[in-house]
Amino acid sequence: MKKIFIAILAVSSMLFTQCTKPTEGFTISINPDVFDNVVAVKFYDAATPGVAPSGIRLTISGDQAQSIYEISGHKIFNVVDGVISLGLLPAAAPAEGQPALFVINAEADGYLPVRVPVTILAGQATKLVTISMVNLNNPPPGVTVVQQNTTLTGNAVPATETIATPTTKSPVATTVSLPANTRFNDAAGNAISGSTLKTTIAHFNTLEAASLNAFPGSGFHSDDITDETGNRVSGNFRTAGFCNIDMALDGKAVKTFSQPVNVKIDVRNDQVNPRTGAAFAAGDVIPVWSYQIETGKWAFEKNGTIVSNGGKLEVDFTTTHLTYYNLAFLDNVCLEARATIVTGLPSAESFLVDIFPEGETAIPAIAGAIMQVENNGVAAFENVPQGNVTMKVYRNTANNSQTDWKVREATPLAVYTGALCGNQPTITLNMPSLTSILFDIEGRCPSNSANPYVRPSVDVWYRIKNIGEYQLLGHVNQGKFQTTNINFQSTYDFKVIWGGSRVYLRTKYVDSTSYTRTITVPENEQQHFCN
């Protein structure tokens, strides 16, 4: 894979620098032509989206894992400031009906681990994946955590032990009751000996965006679900409450119990039951599902019945194993859906899309998806609910959050209601009068007549100066990029991360509608990189 030295070209184009020595103290090596499909990945702390977990350990698995590289062309997956850009080799490029699939696995000290399947559809040249990570010591709004130690006698619980998440910051909770004489086993079913049992329970409130963003897997969708008949199916969960339960006995992970334990998950009585159209009530039946983060597999456990306990709604059930538990209905989906988008703009632009199932207004099935399309171009979406949906399209500006669908401009550019699956509607955006900003950047290699110019391809992140979290502005392709999502005569912070080790920041007042730069690769680097 040929690597070309770029003298901070991409950053120069985005950050509008006029420095005479743009490479001073910062150099990067890239191949600008390798990847036709790029996935920008952003990890963030669920409680503080502007802060990334430190020390993220990232691995890539799944069908196309061998074809995934860091965008610089290396197989080193270092996350810097919570960000990494991944490229898919053209040989593994998706075709219609044949998406490219891989899995992101990430851990960080003090955080719940995550396993996120990623699907790349034909036509998705640029994709954004935002991954929320829950800090157990500083959970976000809607997530409550309890950590409790229990002293055992003879490797068993001496008396009934009850552990519950607090209700001081949430009206709903998860409670686990361990009967007396309960013993504990590891993943292989072997009995574990020890004296101190540490239990950690995290409960997730379903009407808080920060909480729902931490739903395990790739959002509410999974294509590896074992249903109540034992068949493997795909679908979108419409959750009424979920929790994660972990236990360790003297540091050894507990997976199963010697006898059933009781789990109680509260249900908000102001949440609508999608099957009845009314608020949840005692007597409603809802399936209970389990999730194994090690495999990414969901499985039907049993049907739960909602009961009223002192005015609170809850579902009680017993289990013999530890995992995530989810109270949810399962909706059918289509793996691919498309829409023709009329933008009226002279070049491709990125937009944010929220898609709600029919009758749902509080929890989107797809939230904050980025579509980058040209005028009359076709946008592709994966795992769209069957039947009618409501799709809302917004500008991809710093005022519209890519991690919290409740942070939106007052009026979307378009609202489409109808079917997406099996249909390709034409959606016309009501674009306001906007100033388009053009960037065009190249590096010049004066000593190489065969390859005199090189052009970068790189992701650029931005925010309003000193305000909020960095968001993906877009992907610079071959040194060119045009956007209406940054405002003329406004000031922004820009960030480019490259090669798992380089970070370049610049704050800039946007005072021109066209930034064109040709930067000469320094003479001392030309022989090595321009040949």
Fold topology:
Layout: E1 4-6, H1 9-15, E2 28-30, E3 37-45, E4 57-61, E5 68-70, E6 83-88, E7 100-107, E8 114-120, E9 126-133, E10 143-151, E11 161-164, E12 174-178, E13 184-185, E14 196-204, H2 209-212, E15 221-226, E16 232-249, E17 252-253, E18 256-267, E19 285-292, E20 297-309, E21 312-321, E22 324-331, E23 333-342, E24 349-357, E25 366-373, E26 377-385, E27 388-395, E28 414-419, E29 426-428, E30 437-444, E31 453-454, E32 458-464, E33 471-476, E34 480-483, E35 491-498, E36 502-509, E37 514-520, H3 523-529
Strand count, sense and barrel status of the largest sheet are: 5 strands, mixed, barrel
Question: Strands of the largest sheet, in order across it?
Answer: 15-16-22-19-20
The shape, in one word, is globular
Give the strand tally.
Answer: 37
Q: What's this entry about, in short?
A:
The protein is mostly beta strands and 531 residues long.
Which descriptors apply to this entry?
globular, five-stranded mixed beta barrel, four-stranded mixed β-sheet, 531 residues, mainly beta
